[in-house]
Each structure stands twice: as C-alpha cells, then as structure tokens.
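Q: Protein A?
A:
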Amino acid sequence: MQLNARFYETYYFCNVINNVLNDSFTYAVELNDFYGDGRVFSLIDKFPKQSVFHSFITFVVETIYSENSNKIDFDNFDYRSSGLLPIEKAFEYHGIKYQLFKEHLKELCSLKDVFIEDAYYDWLLASQYYEDLITQTVEEVFYLLFLNRELLLNFNQIMADSLEMQASDVSVHVHLNDLLTTRCKNKRCHIPQWAKRAVYFRDRGRCVLCDKDLSGKLNINNLENYDHMVALANYGFNDVTNLQLLCKECNQNTKSAGVGSTSNSYQGWY
C-alpha cells in the first residue's frame, strides 16, 4: 500500500501515544476503555493486517478528537461565523471533501428546534469524511511508530498483561477456541509472508540484537528467525507489531530467557 502522508498533527498523536505507553498506570482508567472489561478478547486474531496497534492508535486519535470537540462552546455557537472548526481545518489540510458544519445546520428545519451539540456529533460521527480522516491519521502514526521497537515491545507487554489478568473470563468467549488455549494464551500459528516482509525491511535484514546480516548475501548459513517480542507463552499476541528479526542463536537465547526483549539500536540512513 502506498501512503500519501501529509503529517497533520501526526507527531502530536505519536507523542501522546508514547507518553501513555510509558506511563500506563497514570492512564489506567482511559486504557481500560480500550482493553478492559473483556474488550481485550475482541482483539484476538491471527496476524490481522489491521493490527492490534492500529486499533489502539484509532482509540487514542478518536479520544483526542472527542476531547477537542468537548471544548467547543455550543451554547454560543455562531453558525454565521466564517471561521473553521478544528476538525474542519484537518479536513482542509488533507484535502478531504466535506460539508461545513454550519451548512449542515442551515439544512435543518429550524435552528430553534435544534440542539447544536447533538447536531454536531450527528454531522461528524456518521460521515465518511470523518472516517477518512481517522484512517489517514492512523496510517501516518503507524508508519512512524512501527519503526520504534521499544515502544512496540512496551505496547505488546501491556496487552499481554491485560490478557493474562482477564484469563479467567476466557470460558465466556467460546468463539475463540480456535485462537486461544485453555489457559487463555494465543495459539501458535503461521506467520504470513506480508508480516515477515514488513519486519524484515523494518529491521534492515539484520538481527536486531547482534546485528548479524540475515540477507543470505554474505553468509547463506545465517537464517532469519521471526521472534515474538512478548512470547506467546507469556500471553503475547500474534500481531505484526509483536515481531522482530533475529538470528537463530539470538532467538534461542531470548526463548531461554523467557522475558520480552529487543534493542534500541538502529542502522543510520547514511
């Protein structure tokens, strides 16, 4: 897929996600709305292209847009004003075709009978242009953060902890029997080629722990291994963001250690 990135507020969203994942205790109430009360089970799948991390980014972005909407003074809203709402500025920047909110209001029968705040959310949340904005923003954020293995390890550890804490509820979700063991751990499954390619190119064809070349061009005996950063045995997910590229030796060492690990060493552009 080719991404036509505009990076409107994208780095802001990246910063928020980084802060939340690095201080998950402070944001425990908010995070519960993402994976708590059994919601974690809706995220169980075999390497979905719309990854668990995509779902988390969507959750954060939509939460922020909702909080920003709550700051609008609907009691004193002037539909005759020429100014744009913050969300409309985002539509404009991305070149997304949309209907102005004030034009939507004019289409309603009588402003006296309209609760403007309700009209705003009806205009926004049911629209294709809002969905397009969310999709574009999520893809841009994912594009940047997929490069950050340490952040992805942190995220996947949080998700694994959540699954483990809710493991006693697994009996309710009988539809997941093909995906989860009786101990509520993700079953091992085939890693699709698209996921391997994404991880291979992200990690530059080198073991992320010892920097050994795994391209097969320098040494045909160096075999690529795709490792779950948070092991399935530790409630890790079958998700592209939970994979990293290791050599055979490092993969065996991480399995014996039993704890999630990666490196923050990256090859420079030049």
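Q: Protein B?
A:
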Amino acid sequence: HRDPDMLVKTLRRLRRRVDVNTEVGVVRDIRLKELRIYTDYGRCSRPLFIVEKQRLLIKKKDIQALQQRETPEDGGWHDLVSKGFIEYIDTEEEETTMISMTINDLVSARLNPEEAYSDTYTHCEIHPSLILGVCASIIPFPDHNQ
C-alpha cells in the first residue's frame, strides 16, 4: 500500500464506528514493515478511552446523558463504543499505543509538555484497576505471588 498510515487510520476509524467488528485488531509494525489485522475471536482485549490531541473524546455531557437514561435500552456501553469514545485494544495492539493511566496525565501533558511523561497519548485507562482486565480485577491481591 502506498500510504500505510492512512490505511491504519481508516481501519481504526471503521472499527470505532462499529463498521468493522470491535474485536478486530489492527497493528502496524514499522520496523518490520508489516500491517497485521487480527480477526479471530477470543483474543485478550480490554476497553480504553480514546484520546486525541491529549484530550478524551468522551465529555462530561456524554457521561451525564448516560446517567440520566431511563431504561437500559436508551444506550449504555454499546453506545459508548459505537460513538467512538471507548475502544477495545488487544495485547498486540497494546504494544503500539501510548496509554495514560489517569486523566491527570493527559492534563499535565497538555499544560507542561516538557515535564510530562509523554505528549503522544492515544488512549486512557477507564480506571487504573482495569489494567489487568475486568475478570482479573476481582482477584484479591493479584500482585502477590505465592
């Protein structure tokens, strides 16, 4: 392909709009000059907020609308994914993303770029406890080995 950056952006945009299944993984390995597309089900993936220009795409009004819905059918998790606020990232794609642990990291990256850890965040954790995934987060003391 003549413009692999544009191809990757297009595939991710399609996935964020749910035109392509949300479980599809898109990985560009610049060093190996490869574009890998994973379509198999059952791969480990986790939800993350999408970040553009060091800002979350989801806004307070979106969260308030989610809180004020009257029935579960009025939106919810699926709407957050289909509107492009949340994206599932698999373990392969995680290697090529820059994930902010908290919103405070994004704020400091915008306000003090020279002191920030990174100024190229692509995603943000929904909550730091979800770094291990939803199921693993309920295991007591996962950081203690027996």
